[in-house]
Every structure is written in structure tokens, then in C-alpha cells.
Amino acid sequence: MNIRFGEENDYLQLAELKWLHMEEDDMDYNEINLLGVDRQVFISEYVSFLKMNSSYQIFVAEEDGSIISAMFICIIPKLPKPNRKSESIAYLTSVYTRKEYRNKEIGSKLLAFIKDYAIKQKCELLFVWPSDKSVHWYERNGFSNENEIYECGLLGE
After folding, report:
1. Is 153 helix (H, G, I), strand (E, B) or coil?
2. Considering the entire predicted model, what is its pTM?
3. Which CATH number fits domain 2-140: 3.10.450.50, 3.10.20.30, 3.50.50.60, 3.40.630.30?
């Protein structure tokens, strides 16, 4: 297994992983992410998004050239304060490991790689909105529910 930064030639595999992730959520949580969605149209849109949007840093675990786990972070710079160096926070999203590779510490190793990277980028905090099913995995990997985040829905979804 190799852990590395994602590259443009990974985008198609990443789109396929996202589709699998949404299929699982539809089955496990009775969601309707894929109802009426054309797979090829989605994959094309996903690849285009990644090509046009450099806000996300992509991290992958691969085996024999196939991506088996992927995670994305978006680093958000904080405004400077007097007598304090400017720092940042990082949002972790689209965390997914193929079913057949789960419970083998692959996701935890990939997350450790991301944490090291975020520390080097002077991130003071890594945050995520976990699904109910993944909360214990995040807790085992050092996350806690200590801060209250208030949100304001803007699109009525």
C-alpha cells in the first residue's frame, strides 16, 4: 500500500469512489443521492470540479495502482490577530475506503498522513462532520466533540 497526494490522473478513480460512497449511503442510510442521476454525467461533473477547484488537497491510499481510500481537506486561513501568527484550520471531507479494505487500518494510516501534513501547514484544528456510523472511528483517531459549531442553512436543503 502506498499513501500519497492525489493527482490529476486520479480524478476518474476518485469520481468512481464518490459514486460508490453515495451508493452505500443510499443503501445504509436510506438516502436518495443517486435517484435520477446519470452515472457518467456525475463522473464527468466530478472530474471537472476537481480540475477547476484547487481548494481541496487530495490524499489517497493505493494498492497496485488502484485507489482504495481517499480523503480531502480544505485549508482555511485564519485572519491574523495582534501578537499571534496567522494560522489555519482544515476541513476533512469525502472520507471513503472501499468496503473490502476496511478494518485493516488503511483509513487510520491515511488520516495520520493527513494530520502530519496539516501540522506542517500550521493548521491548529482539523474538523469533520461525521456520519453516525463513523463517529467511533473518528474518536479512535483523536477527534472529539468538544466544540459547538453553529450553522445557518442558506439553501433550504
Report:
1. coil
2. 0.91
3. 3.40.630.30
